[in-house]
Amino acid sequence: MPTVQPASDRALDHVAASASGPPLDRSLRVTLNFHPDRYQHGIPLIARLVEQGRYLSQFATGTSNGGLTAYEGGDRWRWEHRIFGGAYDRAAPDQRPVYGALNFRGRGVGAAQRFGSAHLRLTEATLERTTFCFPDSTFEPTDFGVAEHLSLIELAAAADHDQLDDYIEAQVHGGVRLDRDVEACVLDPCFRGTEIEHAARRLPCRVEWHGGFVLSVEELLRHSDYRGPEIVDLGATIAVDGRLDPVIIGAAVRSGAHDPQAIKKVWHCVARFGTRADS
């Protein structure tokens, strides 16, 4: 019987056929941003990563820091059907690609901080099985790339996008194993000495720290037009000692006292205006 090509290989071949441009700079890295202290199945996500030993897509986890449309007929399913030529239509949830971003700007906080204060920095080897698009897949992009042919950096660099939308989306095929595919787990310093750091130390990769997200209420009040006055009011309400950081945002999420979508928009303000200049 003929050998059936894996879905991941078919997806990569399908995108490569329409990619153009020069090879990707091999010093660049894909990062997977996430909130390490969000709970999944009763434990922080970082501890869940320790248990699983791999990073899974929202098709497998049922959770997302963006829109949750990973089900048959949903927006994510339809987008993957289109861009990957139907390669994953019959694939098991844990065989589908995971999403991150190409850190072409070299940000210490990762390429797409809107999706979380922490990130996994992937190895160079994973670039060979990664596809790319610009802008984000939710905008139905028509420009794609692979490591051998990538013209997206010029497009992204020239785009007039908000900082939280200023990334090249990456789809990593063939799985992301923590012991094989990750160079480091990079955390916000507000998690030093917490259960999040203790869990991260159990991962089979290095733990590193970026410059940190901190936003004062005073600064937040200057940006009521960013996500709306009601979001600024909520941020001021949940702030501790006149400031917001990832630990404070996570505590507000776990309290259950606020609309999770509203808290997510507070995080957007912190991610946008609370990043240190060297991050």
Give the CA-CA distance, first to last residue.
53 Å
Helix content: 25-40%
Residue windows where pLDDT falls under 50 for at least 5 positions: none
Strand content: 15-25%
The count of β-strands is 14
- Quick one: overall form? globular
Instruction: Report the biggest beta sheet as strand number plus sense, adding barrel if it closes.
Output: 8 strands, mixed
Indicate how many domains the architecture comprises: 2
Order of helices and strands: HEEEHEHHEEEEHEEEHEEHHHEHH
Trace the largest sheet across and list its strands: 8-7-9-5-1-6-11-12
Number of helices: 11
Structural class by sheet pairing and helices = alpha+beta
**CA gyration radius, whole angstroms:** 19 Å
> What does the average pLDDT come to?
93
Organism: Microlunatus soli
InterPro entries: DUF3626
Protein name: DUF3626 domain-containing protein
Region (Disordered): 1-20
Task: Write up what this structure looks like.
It is built from eleven helices and 14 strands. The protein is an alpha+beta fold. It is globular. It has an eight-stranded mixed beta sheet with strand order 8-7-9-5-1-6-11-12, with helices on both faces.
Annotate the secondary structure layout.
Layout: H1 7-16, E1 30-34, E2 39-40, E3 43-44, H2 45-52, E4 54-55, H3 58-61, H4 75-83, E5 98-102, E6 118-122, E7 130-134, E8 143-146, H5 152-158, E9 168-172, E10 176-177, E11 182-187, H6 195-200, E12 206-209, E13 215-216, H7 217-220, H8 224-227, H9 229-238, E14 243-244, H10 246-255, H11 260-273
Parallel strand pairs: 11-12
Antiparallel strand pairs: 1-5, 1-6, 2-3, 4-10, 5-9, 6-11, 7-8, 7-9, 13-14
Helix pairs in contact: 9-11, 10-11
InterPro entries: DUF3626
Region (Disordered): 1-20
Pfam families: DUF3626
